[in-house]
Amino acid sequence: MLFRLSLLLSTFFCFAALAWQAGGEQLYKLETGDEIEIRFLYNTELNDKMTIRPDGRISMPLMGEIAAAGLSVGELTDLLQKKYKDTVRQPVITVQVRGFANRKVFVGGEVLRPGVVVLAGTQTAMGAILEAGGLIRSADRDKLTVIRKGANGAPESLTLSLRAARGKAPEAAGFLLQPYDLVVVNRSGIAKANQAVDQYVRQMSPALLTAGFSYLANVQSSAAAGGIIR
């Protein structure tokens, strides 16, 4: 058992390293609800802690409204230093994230501990499966499904491979999750996997809605149109 777990972890980190090299470093982007602390080395009276508002902005002394959501910590730091260069003599500024917004995904299906996984920084689909205890014996080890909120507010799905191909990491090892994604691992041997995922999501919708996955309220209308799986 310990040998199999060690082998699984070794394989995962190998795949994750390949995905990292292929995709480059992924920097965390600030989001609404994140709590940040902004400190001025030589102008401490301007130091402040704040939460990024729902409109993605923060209010800065002497500067007013500044768009922060969607920027990395480094990008926000550079922006603030440019804006303050004509206002303070030495705008040496640091930005730190003190608290992340309510960032979570749900991992369900054939995993050891189905449930909510908190996103702290970046996380891949395969990483979330490991956070949920890994695959159980009955799991489909070829692919998984990620369901997320589409541009029109309705749930959309993506099928990701769990198998390495030609020396490349599996899709699931390099696929970055977004808050409120739903990762579903099917049971091995199911012929109509798409229908099984549809059914699983519809069964879980009431519980997921109370956990904040509000876009899944559209599951029934999506099912009437032929299911959420394309």
Strand order of the largest sheet: 7-6-10-8-9
Supply Rg.
Answer: 21 Å
CATH class of the largest domain: Alpha Beta
- The CATH superfamily of the largest domain turns out to be Outer membrane lipoprotein wza domain like
Separation of termini? 37 Å
Question: What percent of the residues sit in helical stretches (DSSP H or I)?
Answer: 25-40%
| Largest sheet properties | 5 strands, mixed
- CATH domain topology of the largest domain: Outer membrane lipoprotein wza fold like
- Please tell me the overall pLDDT: 80
General shape: elongated
Written account of the structure:
With 230 residues, this protein is α+β, with helices and mostly antiparallel strands. It has 2 domains: 65 residues, wza like fold (2-Layer Sandwich), CATH 3.30.1950; 123 residues, Outer membrane lipoprotein wza domain like (Outer membrane lipoprotein wza fold like, Roll), CATH 3.10.560. Helix content is 30%, strand content 23%. It is elongated, with a radius of gyration of 21 Å.
Give the topology:
Blueprint (H helix, E strand, L loop, with lengths): L1 H22 L11 E6 L7 E4 L5 E4 L3 E4 L5 H12 L8 E7 L4 E6 L5 E4 L6 H7 L11 E7 L5 E7 L9 H4 L7 E4 L7 H18 L8 H6 L6
Parallel strand pairs: 6-10
Antiparallel strand pairs: 1-2, 1-5, 3-4, 6-7, 8-9, 8-10
